[in-house]
Amino acid sequence: MYTQIIKKQLIKTDIENLWDFMSSPKNLDRITPKEMKFNIKSKNKDQKMYEGMIITYTVTPLLNIPLNWVTEITHIKKNKYFVDEQRLGPYKMWHHEHIFEEKEDGILMTDIITYAPPMGVLGDIANKLFINKKVHNIFNYRKKIIDQIFNKK
């Protein structure tokens, strides 16, 4: 079974600043909850994102067990959107769209996360019990950190 989560956030900055921040793999650690023990292993983390870019990480989503996660940047339209897809990792399927729309008072950033948990029926049960909540928490944390960086009062 697939789950889709949509998160929207208005960010009070210009598209160039937000794009530079969000399209740089090295900033992923900064916007990921510390308890995930997110660690980029790729040597290309300081490069600007490009289609076909493979990014490798370790992440500790549950029970303090580190997992390898490999994503590919599959689509990019500068200052408009990019898509990352899991190639190897904790999900049966992971597809994450990052969409940026210029508005009068900032940039509306929309994350569309579509995923399928592993392990068939057991994964569906785990998704109902805790995976979905965990994914929501990760993106709520991300929203809070991006607010602190860009929406300073």
Would you mind describing this structure in some detail?
The chain is built from two helices and seven strands. It is of the alpha+beta class and 153 residues long. It has one domain (3-150): START domain (Alpha-D-Glucose-1,6-Bisphosphate, Chain A, domain 4), CATH 3.30.530.20. β5 (81-88) and β6 (93-103) form a beta hairpin. The radius of gyration is 15 Å and the shape is globular.
How are the SSEs ordered, and which strands pair?
Blueprint (H helix, E strand, L loop, with lengths): L2 E9 L3 H8 L16 E2 L13 E6 L7 E11 L3 E8 L4 E11 L2 E11 L3 H31 L3
Antiparallel strand pairs: 1-7, 2-3, 3-4, 4-5, 5-6, 6-7
Q: What's the CATH C level?
A: Alpha Beta
CATH superfamily: START domain
The total of beta strands comes to 7
**Shape, please?**
globular
The CATH topology is what? Alpha-D-Glucose-1,6-Bisphosphate, Chain A, domain 4
Please, how many helices?
2
Short description:
This protein is α+β, with helices and mostly antiparallel strands and 153 residues long. It is built from 2 helices and 7 strands; from the N terminus they run βαββββββα. It is globular and about 45 Å long.
